[in-house]
Amino acid sequence: MALIVHKYGGTSVGAVDRIQNVARKVKGFVDNGDQVVVVVSAMSGETNRLVALAGAMQEKPDAREMDVLLSTGEQVTIALLSMALKATGCDARSYTGTQVHILTDSAHNKARILDIDEKKMRADLEAGRVVVVAGFQGVDEHGNITTLGRGGSDTTAVALAAALKADECQIYTDVDGVYTTDPRVVPEARRLDRITFEEMLEMASLGSKVLQIRSVEFAGKYNVPLRVLSSFEGKEGPGTLITYEEDGMEDARISGIAFNRDEAKLTIQGVPDQPGVAYRILGPIGEANIEIDMIVQNVASDDTTDFTFTVHRNDYDKALAILQKTAQELGAREVNGDDRIVKISLVGVGMRSHAGIASTMFEALAKEAINIRMISTSEIKISVVVDEKYLELGVRALHSAFNLEEAPAAP
Amino acid sequence: MALIVHKYGGTSVGAVDRIQNVARKVKGFVDNGDQVVVVVSAMSGETNRLVALAGAMQEKPDAREMDVLLSTGEQVTIALLSMALKATGCDARSYTGTQVHILTDSAHNKARILDIDEKKMRADLEAGRVVVVAGFQGVDEHGNITTLGRGGSDTTAVALAAALKADECQIYTDVDGVYTTDPRVVPEARRLDRITFEEMLEMASLGSKVLQIRSVEFAGKYNVPLRVLSSFEGKEGPGTLITYEEDGMEDARISGIAFNRDEAKLTIQGVPDQPGVAYRILGPIGEANIEIDMIVQNVASDDTTDFTFTVHRNDYDKALAILQKTAQELGAREVNGDDRIVKISLVGVGMRSHAGIASTMFEALAKEAINIRMISTSEIKISVVVDEKYLELGVRALHSAFNLEEAPAAP
User: Fold this and answer.
1) Which of A53, A65, A83 is opposite residue B82, by nearest beta carbon?
2) Which of A154, A166, B76, B178 could make an SS bond with B240 (beta carbons 3.0 to 4.6 A apart)?
3) Residues 6 or more apart in contact with residue B88 via CB below 8 angstroms
């Protein structure tokens, strides 16, 4: 018998039959003797409907009232799922964030969970009930309704699992796990049985959007075993377990290849190489609310430096204009940029302790005559920027070079 | 400066522009220096949508979960109205039933209000804010969400007005007041400036559905001045004040004529006249969950009695079958009935102290050759049952006989 937290997103509860499908799935666990807490999102489409109504009322809808409004989406789902569970003969009880006292700070629309009172849930579980909790929402110390921001239901699930010391937190989605890369680009992409929290963070932030980043951080912090799996009938399977690094993982393992199509790069050349120059270049960009991704700086020969960074493609024109102004002020030689580039990243804890991975990567790209425009590395990833047209070719070359289509040998 | 509670029903908040219209109306009061608490229902159609979803989940949806589900309807409206108020420059804050602590018993779907904590509302009003409260919902002592049953938002408004000792509770509807009778039947029907709580109860229960009966009882009990008026632009006016009986009302005043098209009558004749016979006749009807409206018993000449009662037309066949069975058991002579009858009622506190009203009524009907099939009287009303075909003729004759189209002389 295990205590398991399930989480079902908007698509998984998007219609009457989908909710009934979730009820059957949960009942399977209960029949198996498990205790189950279910966290649900709003039915797909509902949040957008409510946001549109709010937009019709007020140009910039009040943050407190927005949370009152949006939290109704999950409240509808918890009631419906509880009914569906009862219809299958499974006793169940629903709770809003307020009722189960998911205490958050007062930062409306992006609140952070501070504490959870697990007593009510524990009593229901002991009484043989399934506990159904509204995701995405909480309550602040003054009794105001708060929300955790888009995708916050994942965070709710992990936080409940941590508070209840659950055996596992299972995130049901429309994919059956985390893949070595996007199967639409590499048909041979393979589902990973497990991945570390850190790798998952790199995969997620690099564009393989399966889980909300915050929930992964949260799970790592509280040591909650997290599993991603499919909620759809006919796609059942073990999913991917996101877990701590273990001994058996210390081989030269690459978990996957992430990529991001939305990048643009900007370069300022011939900047006098003096202290504070990086701040003088990037400060105005940050003040314009443009997020910077990669940053690379090279020292040139003549006491000047070349400085390159990437931004979201939508921000390219704005960033270029700012940079040209900065270049004049700094007396830089030249500004140029390219908004037809992409980023490809190799992710894996294995690269920490193993040399040769970077060279294998660069070799594989060179074989395909793909010119690398920028390189950046971290503990568990190597990212390269290449021309947009090489994205698919590059990802496939790397997938093959690291044999990602084959499952690793058992440790 | 007055403290006023407004209540807007589903039609009045049924669309974006309607909610904006409500915001403008409320702002008018605020600009006038009034403190305003607004109670709102779910947007029209929303409750039906939710009920349909629940029905798809569970044949007989769980009562607790139904309340969790339905209470989202009003929660959406309070958030939207608060945004709309802020957009007009009017500071506002929304509260769910739980947040403003509308404490009820635990009778899900038909809970009764036990207590209201008015401190939060009072603080907001003092701070110059409009307080927007979700109607129809409350919370029980265990933190479960409850609802007051359909139309319960009227009750919420009256209860808040009582707790806050408001100067007036204004119920905004799609009609501009209470009329002497249905203007679709009598075009000369006149809006009443005032009506007593008791008269309003008779008018409401007799089919002039403007306010939920419970809210009127509640207002009478706590002495809350209640006003019915229109929420629609271009139909502004003083509405109808529902109030205590006052001295000036002691003249022979008839307030209005109510009628009910949904009646059917059943008669059992020649029943041995002995103690307990009424119970033996009506007991089985009640056990079948059939509501009985009027009851009339006449003693016949031969130690037997004739017994007549009315039920809703939909229950006629069922009631007839039960009565035929009872007749056999009691050795009654005959059972007959008629499901093509209607009830017309004259309502007015004036009839308490004035003779001659009944005779004027019967005379007016006789002049039109309308045969009276049944008569029943109470302190403030006289009801007659007539053939269905005479409904409009009868109502018009009475409206004219009592000069209801003319406003009464000022007292």
Assistant:
1) A65
2) B178
3) B23, B24, B27
Taking Cα atoms as reference points, which of A234, A258, A263 lies closest to residue A178?
A: A258
Which of the residues B64, B74, B80 would you substitute to probe the A interface, choosing the one with the greatest number of A C-beta atoms within 10 Å? B80
B212, B169 in Cβ contact below 8 A? no
Amino acid at B290: I
Domain segments of chain B: what residues? 3-244, 248-404
Which CATH code fits A3-173?
A: 3.40.1160.10
> Is A94's CB within 8 Å of B68's CB?
yes
Of B82, B109, B130, which to mutate for an interface test with A (greatest number of A Cβ within 10 Å)? Answer: B82
* Cβ count near B367 (within 10 Å): 10
Residue B265, CA distances (Å) to A283, B71, B203, B261, B329 in order:
86, 39, 21, 12, 21
Strands of B25-127 (E only): list them: 35-40, 92-95, 102-104, 113-116
To the nearest 10 degrees (0 to 180), the angle between helices A152-164 and A213-222 is 10
Taking the alpha carbons at both ends of chain B, their separation in whole angstroms is 28
User: How far is Cα of residue A268 from the mean position of the Cα atoms in its chain?
Assistant: 32
How many CB atoms sit inside 10 A of residue A267's CB?
18
State the smallest CA–CA distance between residue B135 and chain A in angstroms.
Answer: 15
Q: How many CB atoms lie within 10 A of CB A410?
A: 5
Nearest to B384 by CA among B399, B362, B402: B362
B-chain CB neighbours of A76 within 8 Å are 50, 53, 69, 72
Q: Which two tokens stand for residue A271?
A: 């900047």
Which CATH code for domain B3-244?
3.40.1160.10
Q: Look at B57 and A16 and tell me if their CB atoms are within 8 Å.
A: yes
The residues, any chain, with a CB within 8 Å of residue A266's CB and separated by 6 or more, are: A308, A309, A310, A311, A316, A319, A320, A323, A335, A336, A337
Q: Name which of A62, A93, A101, A102 to mutate to probe chain B: the one with the most chain B Cβ atoms within 10 A of its Cβ.
A: A62
Residues of A with CB under 8 A from a CB of B: 16, 19-20, 50, 53-54, 56-59, 61-62, 64-66, 68-69, 71-72, 75-76, 78-80, 82-84, 86-87, 93-94, 96, 98-99, 143-145
Nearest by CB to residue A80, choosing from B57, B87, B145, is B57
pLDDT in tens, chain B (411 residues): 899 999 999 999 999 999 999 999 999 999 999 999 999 999 999 999 999 999 999 999 999 999 999 999 999 999 999 999 999 999 999 999 999 999 999 999 999 999 999 999 999 999 999 999 999 999 999 999 999 976 799 999 999 999 999 999 999 988 888 889 988 899 999 999 988 888 888 887 665 567 777 888 888 888 899 999 988 777 778 999 988 766 554 455 788 999 988 899 999 998 887 777 888 898 899 888 888 888 888 776 678 888 899 999 999 999 999 999 999 998 898 999 999 999 999 998 877 666 678 888 999 999 999 998 888 888 788 899 999 999 999 999 999 999 999 877 554
